[in-house]
Amino acid sequence: QVQLVESGGGLVQAGGSLRLSCAASGRTGSSYVMGWFRQAPGKEREFVGGIRWSGGSTWYGADSVKGRFTISRDNAKNTVYLQMNSLKPEDTAIYFCAYDPYGTIWSNWGQGTQVTVSS
Questions:
Q1: Phi/psi at 106 (nearest 5 deg)?
Q2: Going by DSSP bridges, is the β-strand pair 18-26/2-7 parallel, antiparallel, or unpaired?
Q3: 3-class DSSP assignment, residue 90
Q4: What are phi and psi of 113, to 5 degrees?
Q5: Phi (first) and psi of residue 54, to 5 degrees
Q6: What is the pLDDT of residue 113?
Q7: Which long-range contacts (CB under 8 A, 24 or more apart) does 51-59 make?
Q8: Spatial contact of 83 and 72, defined as CB atoms under 8 Å apart
Q9: What span, in angstroms and rounded, lies between the C-alpha atoms of 97 and 49?
């Protein structure tokens, strides 16, 4: 079983930056994928982006984050990061990281971390 723990959320002014971290522990495979999602109040959970652990290729979901958000990983620490720049009030949400062992379905989720962007 894989456990995920996010950190790094908080309150930031519009235009600022935050870096979220998600540390994975437990038995991970060799073809797994890590991803970031977010859920704003009253809205459905939205896919932000993902990274393949083998090779490190990334892809992003919502057009609104492209060019502002960057996903990266630290293999030695088994940690994935979400660097968020030029934050906007509409980025306010709970951010979750997720684990997909084979690149087919998100099977494990972190508890989420709150990001609040003030105008």
A1: -75, 115
A2: antiparallel
A3: helix
A4: -135, 135
A5: -85, 110
A6: 97
A7: 51/80, 52/103, 53/28, 54/30
A8: yes
A9: 10
